[in-house]
């Protein structure tokens, strides 16, 4: 893509291909993210639940893991990460990005 070409022009060398793991139950979002990262020259593995996410995390080899922040935490109703995320954070020697769904004022009233 254009981003990769820009890096080649500026530095004279190709950027490192990153290996990423995305855990999310939204198959459409995973597909869009996989396409976006592929166009930028990176590899994105996607899994749709925590059990598969933990299995992939334990295998290792990722530069970044993108994990879902449970909705209950984003709403302030849960204060401990689910066990599978805790194990992944402790076991995976890579950076981790926790991403929350947007919390709307109507969500807080529930």
Can you describe what's shown?
The chain has 110 residues and is of the alpha/beta class. 45% of the residues lie in helices and 18% in strands. It is built from 6 helices and 4 strands, in the order H-E-H-E-H-E-H-H-E-H. A 4-stranded parallel β-sheet has the order 2-1-3-4. Mean pLDDT is 77; it is low at 1-9.
Give the key terms.
single chain, 110 residues, alpha/beta, four-stranded parallel β-sheet, 45% helix, 18% strand, globular, disordered N terminus
State the strand order across the main sheet. Answer: 2-1-3-4
Question: Termini separation (Å)?
Answer: 43 Å
Could you name the ranges where pLDDT drops below 50 across 5 or more consecutive residues? 1-9
Shape: globular
Order of helices and strands: HEHEHEHHEH
Quaternary structure classification? single chain
What Rg do the Cα atoms give?
16 Å
Which class of secondary structure composition applies to the elements? alpha/beta
Strand content: 15-25%
Helix content: 40-55%
SSE diagram, text form:
Blueprint: H1 2-11, E1 19-23, H2 27-39, E2 43-47, H3 50-59, E3 64-68, H4 71-74, H5 83-91, E4 95-99, H6 105-108
Parallel strand pairs: 1-2, 1-3, 3-4
Short description:
The protein is of the alpha/beta class and 110 residues long.
């Amino acid at each position: 893509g254009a981003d990769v070409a820009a890096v080649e022009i500026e530095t004279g060398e190709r950027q490192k291909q990153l290996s990423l793991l995305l855990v999310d139950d939204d198959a459409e979002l995973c597909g869009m993210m996989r396409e976006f990262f592929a166009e930028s020259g990176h590899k994105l593995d996607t899994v749709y639940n925590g059990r598969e996410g933990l299995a992939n995390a334990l295998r290792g080899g990722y530069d970044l893991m993108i994990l879902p922040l449970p909705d209950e935490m984003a709403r302030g109703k849960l204060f401990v990460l689910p066990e599978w995320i805790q194990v992944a954070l402790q076991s995976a020697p890579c950076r981790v990005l926790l991403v929350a769904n947007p919390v709307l004022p109507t969500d807080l009233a529930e």
